[in-house]
Design goal:
The protein is mostly beta strands and about 400 residues long. The protein folds into 2 domains: about 90 residues, 3-Layer(aba) Sandwich (Rossmann fold); about 260 residues, TolB, C-terminal domain (Neuraminidase, 6 Propeller), CATH 2.120.10.30. About 10% of the residues lie in helices and about 45% in strands. The protein contains 4 helices and 30 strands. It has a 5-stranded mixed sheet, with no helix packed on it. A 5-stranded mixed sheet has the order 3-2-4-5-6, with helices on one face. The chain has a 4-stranded antiparallel sheet with strand order 9-8-7-30, with no helix packed on it. A hairpin with a 7-residue loop joins β20 and β21. It is globular. The two termini are about 35 Å apart.
């Protein structure tokens, strides 16, 4: 085993989980200002003016509805901080956002085939320009459902509409991960009889395997830049977490475990991966540093989440929180904990699991008793996005 590991791209350094006190390395420390970042942010005041053109009136109404649902704005004519105007002709949409002091924020035309698609793109641009946070109108949710009798992967918008089945594998497909640009999905397929990670191009429809190594592979996650995958591979014998470069097809091991690692997730800085590992006493969460150079050491640390059972971890978009699944009593629950240190909060108990962050960090999606939910962390309100669509599990938000 030692000889095989010497052939890997990276060298491993494991700190024993039995240690009770761990000094966090410099790369794991974050500014203490994260508590301030969690303060509730006020809604910006936005005035939506007239939209000219044959479909201008209906486009304005739909756009106001989209912006209201985002909960980022107070739509008003009084003391507005921003004014939005534009036109809509035959599905083609133009939008102009101006600040109260007269500064032009942007002026753009949207010419996708569908009017709704153009309006969602405009809504997201307005949110980003006015708040600095990404909008969700064009984002997508990917999830697993068994509605056809076998588990397959589906994709939908954040309202639970425009549902499309992505995979049609006889033996099922699970553990989806959307690429950052939304153009591809990595997932685990069982079409060959054992788990193998595939990547599908959603535009062209082709799919390919990630690696030609023997053994199984599963649980892939795209890096923030979309150039790498973190996944579990077992070609060394015991399953380990690997990082593979999609451009060069090289891979490096960043774990060294006798347990069962799963569910890797990237920190937004692209230098850390968090994953669950069950070494016989229930899954715990570990953080690994991803080496920037070949043959560099990969350091691995036990992250104390405060629960004896931790699975499905995912970093928030700003890297200052981790959402994960735990057990409370005999049932699962979704928890959010400050990272690298801080308090934890139960977001939803009674069977909630598989949490995933929205791109703006305000919402979590998760599954509970087969239903897909979106949970507003600012108001603690949630809504069922998709119900009676088979048993839904493993939702992931496009990052």
């Amino acid at each position: 085993m030692t000889g095989l590991r010497n052939l890997l791209v990276v060298t491993l350094l494991l700190l024993q989980p039995a240690a009770q006190a761990v000094t966090l390395p410099a790369w794991l420390k974050l500014p203490s200002a994260h508590k301030k970042a969690q303060a509730k942010l006020p809604q910006r005041k936005l005035s939506v003016g007239e939209f000219s053109g044959g479909t201008g009136a209906s486009a304005k109404k739909s756009l106001v509805d989209e912006l209201t649902q985002s909960r980022e704005f107070q739509i008003t004519e009084m003391e507005a901080e921003f004014t939005l105007s534009g036109s809509s002709v035959g599905g083609r949409v133009s939008g102009k956002l101006t600040r109260a002091d007269g500064k032009l924020m942007f002026e753009r035309t949207y010419a996708a085939p569908g009017l709704d698609e153009n309006l969602r793109a405009l809504a997201d641009d307005v949110i980003l320009a006015a708040t600095g946070r990404p909008g969700l109108a064009t984002s997508r949710l990917v999830f697993v459902s068994d509605r056809t009798g076998t588990k397959q992967i589906y994709i939908c918008d954040v309202q639970g509409k425009e549902v499309q089945q992505v995979t049609h594998h006889a033996h099922g497909a699970v553990s989806p991960s959307l690429s950052p640009d939304g153009g591809g999905i990595a997932y685990t397929s069982y079409k060959s009889g054992f788990p193998v990670v595939l990547i599908m191009d959603l535009g062209l429809g082709w799919e390919r395997t990630v690696t030609d190594t023997p053994g199984s592979s599963f649980g892939a996650a795209f890096s923030p830049d979309g150039q790498k995958l973190a996944l579990v591979m077992s070609f060394l014998g015991n399953p380990e977490i690997f990082v593979t470069d999609l451009g060069t097809n090289t891979a490096g091991c960043i774990s060294d475990t006798v347990g069962a690692p799963s569910s890797p997730s990237w920190h937004p800085d692209g230098r850390q991966v968090i994953f669950a590992d069950d070494r016989g006493k229930g899954p715990k969460l570990y953080v690994a540093e991803v080496p920037e150079k070949d043959n560099a050491e990969a350091r691995l640390f036990l992250w104390r989440a405060g629960y004896s059972f931790c699975a499905d971890p995912e970093f928030s978009p700003n890297g200052r929180m981790v959402a994960f699944t735990t057990r409370i009593g005999k049932d699962t629950a979704v928890v959010v904990k400050e990272y690298p240190q801080g308090t934890a909060k139960v977001i939803q108990a009674e069977g909630a699991q598989h949490p995933s962050w929205s791109p703006n960090g305000r919402y979590l999606c998760y599954s509970q008793h087969g239903t897909l939910y979106v949970h507003d962390l600012r108001t603690s309100q949630r809504r069922a996005v998709l119900t009676q669509y088979g048993t839904i599990s493993e939702p992931r938000w496009m990052r």
